[in-house]
Amino acid sequence: MHLNTDMTVNRITDEIWEIPLFEKPGMLVPARIYATEGILQAMDSGVFDQVTNVACLPGIRRYALCMPDGHWGYGFPIGGVAAFDVQDGVISPGGVGYDINCGMRLIRTDLTLADVQPHLERLMTELFRRVPAGVGANGFVRLSGEEFGRVMTHGARWCVERGYGWHRDLVRMEEGGCIEGADPSIVTDHAIQRGINQLGTLGSGNHYLEVQVVSNERIFDPVTAAALGITGHEQIAVTVHCGSRGFGHQLASDYLKVFEKAMRRYGITVKDQQLACAPFRSPEGQDYFSAMNCAANTAFANRQVITHQIREAFATVFGQSAEALGMELVYDVAHNIAKVERYAEGELVVHRKGATRAFGPGSPELPETFRQTGQPVICGGSMETGSYLLVGTDQAVRDTFGSTMHGAGRTMSRAQAKRTFRGEQLQQQMKQRGILVKAVSMSGLAEEAGLAYKNISEVVESVDRAGITKKVAELRPIGNIKG
Amino acid sequence: MAWTFRFLEEIALADIGFEAEGESVEEVFRCATQALLESMANPATVSGGWERAIERSDVDPSALLFDWLSEVVYWKDAAGVVFREAPLTLTREGDAWLLRARLIGAPVDQQIQELHADVKAVTKHLYELKRTGGCWKVRVVLDV
């Protein structure tokens, strides 16, 4: 088997591969990669190097993990999961990423493809108008500094209080859309100035808003799907992928600087500058955790305001209220975050960077709504292939700190994609295949071509076979908005 | 003016990497800045009207360049603008390098500007400013 590394990689099962402790000086735990043999062979060398760098961080427990959508990131690989003891372990912005609480949200409807198809052009135009995307886009919500502070502490709850959502939405979000312990007083002015006008905006890159259809033949677990509101019969759903925007990006940048200095003070050395970290219990560690929670709540609020705009757009186009159209939230889940969770080893700070929480039906942290199904997991593929709805498992809680994949993962660099594809041509080709795309940037669109990504179905298959999530349904795109 | 930089294909799969070079530190600052501006929008499609004078100093030119590029990204969001140009000078003041720059651009307008990526951050991933063979080079990876 040819791999893009010289390291020893041992097969544990057909979907689990382990790099032993002796492969890199300083490794405190082995590294494990979840992937089929085919996916493992295609992984770039950065994954092997970065996951073993993570295995060297102080206080790490059990394994440094990488999910099958893993690829080269900053510090941690994308798809990286690592858990550190709250007493002697660290917290690292490099294990969360710049886009704090970048995540996925899925909204179901009672509409079918036959209902939507005749109005698709108008619907996409309305969505494109209501949900700003791309460089420098500002949202419609105007906030004072004090009110922005309430967004930081209350997250999606703030939105519901202001009429940008329904109270029952909250139960269908990780942490109810509001993480405790967010302290706006330690947030930098720079971060506030960058983010205060961006609530309700998508951003660019791989962020998107997608109108999708669910066919009966692409429902793999009808009972669970029905319990989550996914009924098939060419049902229309909407997926949103975005995060905390400039606010979170700036906080991450600011705290990386703080941690570079803190590491010298605490005598911590790391293999990569982007792994800058501090003891979780240190003042710097606690400040970052609190600031990160401010950004995480802002991201929940961002996706909630976008949901409000999506509901308004559908209501305008179809002449019925969003409630009458059955536009209930299926779930909202983060895939760039650090959280304190309890496992066999005790309380751990679990970092998920391009990885999704995947708690099983037995998890006491889940609300009653998901005690039978397990926690919904939403994984986005490329704009040409669509997304998957999965559910977490108790095995994930045992094996991967309750974590799984988050998306397809890239195989082609943005520069190469831009050389290979033309945005206008891609837009035309997708239209011919029944996918209407509205994009702010044509070069940005070219970068997101389907062939620049792994085959999401193969990635999903590998986590399903590994037992850390079970697939429920596939959602196929018919309309896409990109920044 | 000819800018010496190239976007890198072999690194930063999901993001934007570039390498800029110049015969002087000042020149490499200019080229790296231009690469960043072009990552966000085509400067030729951006008018003026918005302007900020920025002055920063540091004994370490590598840290100074990193902070300057990060500040450009900050203003993109804080002011909601993209940039046409950023004329700058770099001088020595004792042990420190002093950067004086003007950031010139316009509010984002999707109708008239050719917009590119919404850069999240300048990263330290593979970041390196070095002198090789009489030439200054910097490698930068932007998170987008």
Helices and strands, with pairings:
The complex is a heterodimer of chains A (483) and B (144).
Chain A: E1 10-13, E2 16-19, E3 31-34, H1 37-42, H2 45-54, E4 64-71, E5 78-85, E6 90-91, E7 103-112, H3 113-116, H4 120-130, H5 145-154, H6 156-161, H7 189-195, E8 208-214, H8 222-227, E9 235-242, H9 245-266, E10 278-279, H10 283-318, E11 329-334, E12 336-343, E13 346-353, E14 356-357, E15 376-380, E16 387-392, H11 394-399, E17 403-404, H12 414-420, H13 423-432, E18 436-439, H14 442-447, H15 456-466, E19 469-482
Chain B: E1 5-8, E2 16-22, H1 25-40, E3 50-58, H2 61-78, E4 81-85, E5 88-93, E6 96-107, E7 121-132, E8 135-143
Antiparallel strand pairs in B: 1-2, 2-8, 3-6, 4-6, 5-6, 7-8
Question: Please, could you describe this protein's structure?
Answer:
The complex is a heterodimer of chains A (483) and B (144). Chain A has helices at residues 37-42, 45-54, 113-116, 120-130, 145-154, 156-161, 189-195, 222-227, 245-266, 283-318, 394-399, 414-420, 423-432, 442-447, 456-466; strands at residues 10-13, 16-19, 31-34, 64-71, 78-85, 90-91, 103-112, 208-214, 235-242, 278-279, 329-334, 336-343, 346-353, 356-357, 376-380, 387-392, 403-404, 436-439, 469-482. Chain A is 33% helix and 23% strand. In chain A, the strands form four sheets. In chain A, strands 7, 8, 9, 11, 15, 16, 18 and 19 form an eight-stranded mixed β-sheet that branches. Chain A is α+β, with helices and mostly antiparallel strands and 483 residues long. Chain B has one domain: Archease, Possible Chaperone, Chain: A, domain 1. In chain B, 24% of the residues lie in helices and 44% in strands. Chain B is built from two helices and eight strands, in the order ββαβαβββββ. In chain B, the strands form two sheets. A four-stranded antiparallel β-sheet of chain B has the order 1-2-8-7, covered by helices on one side. In chain B, strands 3, 4, 5 and 6 form a four-stranded antiparallel β-sheet that branches. In chain B, a hairpin with a 2-residue loop joins β5 (88-93) and β6. The longest helix of chain B is centred in the middle third of the chain and has 18 residues, at 61-78. Chain B is globular, with a radius of gyration of 14 Å.
